[in-house]
Write a structure and sequence with these properties.
Strand content: 35-45%
Helix content: under 10%
Structural class: mainly beta
Largest sheet: 19 strands, parallel
Distance between the termini: 93 Å
């Protein structure tokens, strides 16, 4: 700020050559004595040091020179009064800047200092310069603090012995506010420390120097393009007018103003700002989270999170990104990359493809499809010299050589470039896929990746993808996943909410709408509570898909308090290279309790729980379905449970520890339970009663054991005499082994209630 420039104010007094009547020998106020009449001062037109000057004879103890013009005193404006003096003859006085402070109405402002520091003249002919700064603010460097003054009459004082003769050059008054501006508004300009802002010069050192000098003040980055070709850390607050340009390998860390808004102001590019802010997040310990400030970040291409800081291939410290939205812009960068390649698979090396043709063209993170390939199997790594591809899960029936298809979907946030990535949280973020981009791809390894309170809206192919074991302990809480296939019939859908390959996944209180599958879970220790997933359509007698797909036969998992709407729980072993039962656990370790199952407008063969063995010899061993509600609307269904025998059936003779009880059935033709509590009435006397369980046991299971038999009324013989014999039961009778024989010591008739089980409990 300079009032002479901005407001056109002239602060300099008129020169002595214009007349000495303008110069007072006292205080400078109107009517005061002037040097034009005092006789103690004369104008000297020619002097070897001064173009024109006032020559004074000091006859008073303090000789004064004051300009009679009123110099304005403006708040925020700093004036420097400067005088040049030399002794000519006689006694040598001291000289100082002095002035008279005026308030409105010509009243002198009392209680303020009216003169600056004095300098002693020590020789004749030597020019001595004195100066003082006047302002309304009491700041370091201000000599005359005139708070409340409106104007001043400025000049000099000569003190000391009398009788001396001095000459005084024209007095100057300069606006020096610019010297105080940085301190006034607590700013340090990077240009003062060598920054060029030309987009070519490396300004890193200047930024660091300015920050070191700031000492609590704000670092100012003025207009310009500032190239930072090195790491820069700013400890103080910072304000941007100009733009930062910095390569990904260098870090720009803001310790005070750490949030997305500040980085956006710095880089003036949404994507670069996010990458740089994320880079700082994982390289600075004082902040655990990046606040996106509620901003929408428009992405022109997938964000390779590892490439944001190429120096790191692993990161395992808790960090959070929160409070914002990601949205893809239209463009070819989101197109799926699809590659077909011939490769060989062997069950003895079940997570690897060998002899892969054109292996370099296969992208990491690609979905693998082909004959004998289960759902949601991805490429975790590629070894070009060995011509091998590592897979996230084994293939169930792909022995030999065939052509596989590799489809690499494009994700808004892609962490697959890391070797291992753990303890990361995405919080309160909307991933607005617009049907052109998928949501999040995890790293191939890591643990406790947490997505909470997020919306994954309209992803093109996948909401969240785990291409390896980066989903160990993954948590998805209170999120909403909405597909881009709301109007697409179930049979034609391709998108999937998420998948997990590793163990201990926690899925809680989420809402999911109209994907092909809500999720495909290939690990154990899954906990799913309080979720609502619905995947129906408006088709009459429409097809339904598995909302939850379990691919481990013994998943050690619990489903509690969920709402399964127009889909079913599908339980397979499709991620097993040897799917026939051998030494592994068979179908068990699953609890489904306290859930709501509902469907509408489906064919009567629809089921809510489907087991699909991909090889023979499997059986149920440790499975509980307790306290659920099963309901069909706009039509009835036959049963709630089913075994899909496309590849193999279960071995019902080996069923163990299976509980299916306490459930409620609405519009279900054949309710089931295990144990099943049945009644048999024998109208004619017989030694062996054939009691048919029909469809009462789940999965059309065999009547293996009878737990109890209780006569319901009298048991009588042909003479109508009561018989008190204790009968004995035989299970697995009849052609389908679903009948029970109840044997008596003599032919009898009557009615019994009995409990039959399809499992062995001992």
């Amino acid at each position: 700020m300079n009032k002479a420039i901005t407001d056109g104010i002239v602060f300099d007094p008129l020169p002595f050559s214009t007349g000495l009547a303008l110069w007072s020998s006292t205080d400078g106020t109107p009517g005061s004595d002037s040097y034009a009449a005092s006789g103690s001062g004369v104008f000297v037109a020619a002097d070897q040091d001064f173009a024109g000057c006032l020559e004074l004879l000091k006859i008073d103890p303090t000789a004064r020179v004051r300009y009679k013009g009123e110099t304005p005193i403006i708040p925020g404006c700093y004036l420097q009064i400067t005088a040049r003096v030399k002794a000519v003859a006689g006694a040598l006085p001291a000289v100082r800047i002095a002035g008279w402070p005026g308030e409105g109405g010509g009243v002198e402002l009392a209680g303020v200092t009216t003169f600056g520091a004095a300098k002693q003249l020590t020789s004749y002919g030597q020019v001595v310069e004195v100066s003082a700064i006047v302002a309304t603010a009491d700041r370091s460097g201000v000599d005359l603090v005139w708070t409340g003054a409106e104007y001043g009459h400025f000049g000099i004082d000569l003190t000391g012995p009398t009788g001396g003769v001095v000459r005084l050059d024209d007095i100057t008054i300069t606006d020096v506010t610019s010297a105080f501006t940085r301190d006034l508004i607590s700013m340090v300009d990077v240009r003062d420390y060598g920054a060029k802002g030309d987009g070519v010069t490396d300004d890193s050192a200047a930024f660091n120097a300015a920050d070191a000098a700031a000492n609590g003040r704000t670092v100012m980055v003025p207009a310009g393009d500032f190239l930072l070709a090195n790491n820069v850390t700013i400890e103080n607050r910072i304000l941007f007018e100009g733009r930062i340009d910095q390569a990904p390998e260098y870090r720009f860390i803001l310790q005070q103003d750490y949030n997305y808004d500040t980085y956006f102001k710095a880089f003036q590019d949404e994507e670069i700002a996010f990458k740089k802010a994320y880079q700082a997040l994982i390289n600075f310990a004082d902040h655990d989270s990046l606040d996106l400030c509620g901003r929408r970040i428009l992405l022109t291409e997938p964000v390779d999170m590892q490439a944001a800081d190429p120096s790191r291939t692993r990161f395992e410290t808790r960090r959070v990104i929160r409070n914002g939205q990601f949205q893809p812009a239209d463009g070819a960068a989101w197109d799926t990359v699809e590659v077909t390649s011939q490769a060989t698979y062997s069950a003895s090396d079940d997570n690897r493809l060998t002899n892969v043709v054109n292996v370099a063209s296969i992208p990491v993170g690609a979905l693998v499809q082909g004959n004998g390939v289960g759902r949601e199997i991805y490429v975790t790594s590629v070894n070009e010299p060995a011509q091998t591809v590592e897979l996230s899960r084994p293939l169930f029936d792909a022995e030999g050589t065939q052509v596989f298809t590799f489809s690499r979907f494009q994700y808004m946030l892609d962490f697959s470039g890391y070797e291992k990535f753990s303890q990361f949280i995405l919080d309160d973020i909307e991933f607005q896929g617009r049907g052109i981009a998928s949501g999040i791809m995890l790293a191939p390894d890591g643990f406790t990746f947490h997505v909470r309170d997020c919306f994954i809206n309209r992803p093109k192919d996948r909401g969240i993808t785990s291409p390896g074991r980066g989903c160990q302990g993954m948590m998805i809480d209170r999120c909403q996943l909405i597909s881009d296939e709301q109007s697409v019939p179930v049979a034609n859908r391709v998108s999937i909410g998420f998948n997990a390959n590793a163990n201990d996944v926690k899925i809680r209180d989420n809402r999911t709408s109209k994907f092909k599958h809500f999720c495909v879970l290939a690990g154990s220790g899954n906990l799913m509570t309080g979720n609502h997933w619905f995947h129906g359509d408006d088709e009459v007698n429409g097809v339904r898909m598995g909302g939850i797909v379990l691919t481990l036969p013994n998943p050690k998992s619990i489903f509690t308090g969920n709402y399964c709407d127009n889909n079913f729980i599908e339980w397979t072993n499709e991620h097993d290279a040897s799917p026939a039962f051998g030494t592994q656990f068979s179908f068990g370790g699953l609890t489904i309790t306290g859930n709501m199952f509902t469907t509408n407008d489906v064919a009567d063969w629809f089921n809510f729980i489907v087991i699909k063995p991909y090889g023979p010899g499997h059986f149920i061993n440790g499975f509980a379905v307790i306290g659920n509600v099963f309901r069909s609307l706009n039509g009835r269904i036959d049963r709630v449970e089913h075994v899909d025998t496309t590849f193999a059936d279960l071995d019902y003779s080996r069923t163990r520890s299976f509980v299916f009880e306490g459930n409620t059935f609405h519009n279900v033709n054949e309710p089931v339970s295990n144990p099943a509590f049945l009644t048999h009435r024998q109208a004619t006397e017989a030694t062996t009663w054939v009691m048919e369980t029909n469809t009462a046991l789940p999965f059309d299971g065999r009547a293996l054991t009878v737990e109890s038999v209780m006569p319901d009324g009298a048991i009588t013989n042909a003479g109508n005499t009561r018989v008190h014999d204790l009968p004995w039961a035989e299970g697995e009778q009849g052609i389908d082994l679903r009948d029970v024989h109840l044997n008596w010591s003599q032919p009898v008739k009557g009615q019994v209630r009995y409990a039959v089980r399809m499992d062995q409990t001992g």
